[in-house]
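Today's session is about reading a structure prediction critically. Students often jump straight to the picture, but the first step is always the sequence itself: look for stretches that repeat, for charged clusters, for runs of hydrophobic residues. Only then move on to the predicted structure, which in these notes is written as discrete structure tokens rather than atom positions. Here is the chain we will use throughout the hour.
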Amino acid sequence: SFINSIKQSIQSLKIKEPFFLSNLLTIPGLTELESLFDKVDPINIYKESLNFQFSIGISIIKDLRTLSDNVFLNINQEWPKGRGERKLLGTLWSYLAIAGDTKVKRICVNSISHSSMTIARAALEALKPIDSHETEEASNLFYKLWKDNPVVLDSWFAYEASRPNKYGIDFIEKLLSHSKFD
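Below is the predicted structure for this chain, in token form.
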């Protein structure tokens, strides 16, 4: 029933209400999910959240791909126009990347150098939970593009520190000793 409701929402809203549709498709964040439990297991909540997103993404992958392709055509509008489309595109990319869509993962990497920082960050966020070549490539490209801009580079450090990493604390310590870290 839930998946069918999402499909119907996508069909009825499409790109007419992109900002609303993006909010509708966005699942609650970890802080909100943790508030629902007496005993909090953040790792399990995170994994289940990703599994839930994967289930949605894989169930409606064709609808998400079609909508993503249509929305992509409208992202280059001058601000504030296109704002909803850019937000929706990031949401769609997240579902598609988690569902394993190789085309979207490549689009995300290519979008790192997009003229819109919103699109570049949406691409990074879509790839963040995935342990893939594209995730590393996108992160490296973003760093190379912005290594001389301390303000933007701060967001790269935050991104890197928040990515799932099997080396955990060692990886964070490496970031803290990075020559560009301030």
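Discussion point for the tutorial: The first helix runs from residue 2 to 13.
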